[in-house]
User: Fold ABC transporter ATP-binding protein from Slackia equolifaciens.
Amino acid sequence: MRIEKAVKRYGTKTALNVEGIEFPRGQICAVMGVNGCGKTTLARVLAGTTRPDEGGMILDAGETVGYMPQRSYAFYGTLAHNVALGAKGRRFDERCQELVEALGLSHLERESAKKLSGGETARMALARVLAGTWTHLVLDEPTAALDIPSTLAAERLMRDYCTEKNAGIVVVTHSVSQARRLADHAIFMDGGRIVEEGPAAAILSHPQTPELSEFLAILGS
Ligand SMILES: Nc1ncnc2c1ncn2[C@@H]1O[C@H](COP(=O)(O)OP(=O)(O)OP(=O)(O)O)[C@@H](O)[C@H]1O
Assistant:
């Protein structure tokens, strides 16, 4: 999955203006930056839910993308039904069961999904996307509503998915510590553009641009 160029404008505002990004299989890439810098717009372009004004996302033959949007959605029916929607044949199979257990949702399997809390809905949505077989995942702040134990469980599942399926995973996150724990590669955005990117451990320890240096300094990282 890659972008040679993608530009998205809303009126006179350019929300996204990026070029030359690749998301190789077998790697987790963290997308970071302040509110409004274009992270979700990039995620939506990659997921195919926003049509750019110029350019776009390119998939090679056989590549497929699973998407977890920033606002997790509950479909009608039980939590188990919702997770099964992501699985092959829409069956609540062994894989769904494993995911539900790993995310601490087993006791809610038969609950109506519409009644779940924000954090429970987010965990259900993560289980739903991880139940599928995709070559790439685009996850927009998948752990923003999660407590620390659930966040760590979710990170383990993302890493396992990347390794077992040789998947390329794009994770939008506001957490520098999450990016350090989870990501192989990091992209830092500002004003719709990518201002710095590279191996996550390197750029988050030794930023090369004033924008990323300031971002890390403000966060006290
Ligand atoms: N549908 C829209 N109509 C108008 N402006 C939009 C729309 N979607 C996004 N924008 C604008 O584009 C810019 C980038 O938004 P985007 O949601 O991609 O930012 P973000 O980095 O994901 O922010 P956050 O961290 O708050 O989620 C913002 O200025 C936003 O107001």
Summary: The chain has a mean pLDDT of 96. The chain is about 35% helix and 25% strand. Residues 48 and 76 are 24 Å apart (CA to CA). The helical segments are 39-47, 79-84, 94-102, 118-130, 148-165, 176-182, 200-205, 210-218.
